[in-house]
Amino acid sequence: MFFDRPESGELAVLVHLELSAIDSPDDPREFEELALSAGADPVAFIFGQRATPDPKTFVGRGKLEEIQQTVKKHGAELVIFDHTLSPSQERNVERELNCRVLDRTGLILDIFAQRARTHEGKLQVELAQLRHMSTRLVRGWTHLERQKGGIGLRGPGETQLETDRRLLRARIDSIEKRLDKVRRQREQGRRARSRAEVATVSLVGYTNAGKSTLFNRLSSADVYVQDQLFATLDPTMRRVELPNVGAMILADTVGFVSHLPHRLVEAFRATLEEAANATLLLHVVDAAAENRLQLVEEVQLVLEEIGASELPQLLVYNKLDLLADAQPRIDRDADGVPKAVWLSAATGAGCELLTEAIAERLGEQMVSGQLIIPPQHARLRAQLFAVNAVQSETFRDNGDIELNLLLPRTDLQRLMAPFADVDNPPLWQAESGDDSELDDSEEDFTS
């Protein structure tokens, strides 16, 4: 954008170092999948080991020469590191190799730039790219200045680098203001759903765990699905009706990855807030992955970063069709509450169990029973129908309305509150034999 770099190509050399200072090293296979998702054509994969990164070139002199020979041998135009390089390290390695160098953060940013489809998604990606680029501006303009003497040559009194930084800062400020507007709009939507007592269920999980396939299966939507990392970038929301519970909002979110760049977390804050404010998180896990426990931990780290780690979670072990002799099932805790569901979103096996488990988790605060409404309070009947709480209705000879209800406890409390001090109030009778209901419910709901 503001600086000159070697031309980028698709023939790439991948570099992965095992650093003894890191307790849990990254999976090289995931790095290769990231490169393929970006459209690179890997021609060589170079491995190495170091105790700590070299401060100048990240890799040592010997490994740098090996990379240089590999680049010349294959005619590669791009070298991708499975690590985060400092701007000086990136610049020094480019100078030695005479080809473009990309680190893990730049690679993920490039994938996101390709996947963004909506206006909001493109803004978020551009913001992350500009923030990343702002630390690397110096490479292209160290030789140019606009502080020249002579008639007709006097510039504005600042170097070209300073000018570009000012333009970059102005663009970042502009995008942040537009994203703030998006954030406020999303917050208004969440407040409206909260007032309507509509639960939000967000799909979260590692990238390529099958979230979008599951989203399409549950909501009958047509979200883009592909067997690649970060196939979904733009968030999608659909209204889904659950038996015995009512409506919920199902949200599909961007997948997480180990060492997710902090700039992306910041740029996608408006989108990730949908997960942070959800009623229930469906944590989708690739059941066929050998390191699935590690992937679960990586997702938990990102959830902690966005403030969503304490939200109720239901684990969803997907891709059961890739496991031999595995059957769909619901795992429950000691209290009988669903904690995990095993299914295959691709084949649909076990998806009805997931619907059942979600209904149980969301229905923990549901109450059922009979409400008798005197004729003078008939407006309450319309309000109950508006929240889809009425299961059946009967009119008595004296004009009373008898309703069998199933609705959230908070809805019933809110609707009954205006009748606390009226004469002849509606009479609530909890379903007999249900210990979860309130005793002496009329007093409880109208006091």
UniProtKB/TrEMBL annotation:
<dbReference type="InterPro" id="IPR025121">
    <property type="entry name" value="GTPase_HflX_N"/>
</dbReference>
<comment type="subunit">
    <text>Monomer. Associates with the 50S ribosomal subunit.</text>
</comment>
<dbReference type="InterPro" id="IPR030394">
    <property type="entry name" value="G_HFLX_dom"/>
</dbReference>
<keyword id="KW-0175">Coiled coil</keyword>
<keyword id="KW-0547">Nucleotide-binding</keyword>
<dbReference type="Pfam" id="PF13167">
    <property type="entry name" value="GTP-bdg_N"/>
</dbReference>
<dbReference type="InterPro" id="IPR042108">
    <property type="entry name" value="GTPase_HflX_N_sf"/>
</dbReference>
<dbReference type="Pfam" id="PF16360">
    <property type="entry name" value="GTP-bdg_M"/>
</dbReference>
<comment type="function">
    <text>GTPase that associates with the 50S ribosomal subunit and may have a role during protein synthesis or ribosome biogenesis.</text>
</comment>
<comment type="similarity">
    <text>Belongs to the TRAFAC class OBG-HflX-like GTPase superfamily. HflX GTPase family.</text>
</comment>
<keyword id="KW-0963">Cytoplasm</keyword>
<keyword id="KW-0479">Metal-binding</keyword>
<feature type="domain" description="Hflx-type G">
    <location>
        <begin position="199"/>
        <end position="366"/>
    </location>
</feature>
<dbReference type="GO" id="GO:0016787">
    <property type="term" value="F:hydrolase activity"/>
</dbReference>
<feature type="coiled-coil region">
    <location>
        <begin position="158"/>
        <end position="192"/>
    </location>
</feature>
<protein>
    <recommendedName>
        <fullName>GTPase HflX</fullName>
    </recommendedName>
</protein>
<dbReference type="InterPro" id="IPR016496">
    <property type="entry name" value="GTPase_HflX"/>
</dbReference>
<dbReference type="InterPro" id="IPR027417">
    <property type="entry name" value="P-loop_NTPase"/>
</dbReference>
<keyword id="KW-0378">Hydrolase</keyword>
<feature type="region of interest" description="Disordered">
    <location>
        <begin position="423"/>
        <end position="447"/>
    </location>
</feature>
<keyword id="KW-0342">GTP-binding</keyword>
<dbReference type="InterPro" id="IPR006073">
    <property type="entry name" value="GTP-bd"/>
</dbReference>
<dbReference type="InterPro" id="IPR032305">
    <property type="entry name" value="GTP-bd_M"/>
</dbReference>
<dbReference type="Pfam" id="PF01926">
    <property type="entry name" value="MMR_HSR1"/>
</dbReference>
<keyword id="KW-0460">Magnesium</keyword>
<dbReference type="InterPro" id="IPR035647">
    <property type="entry name" value="EFG_III/V"/>
</dbReference>
<feature type="compositionally biased region" description="Acidic residues">
    <location>
        <begin position="432"/>
        <end position="447"/>
    </location>
</feature>
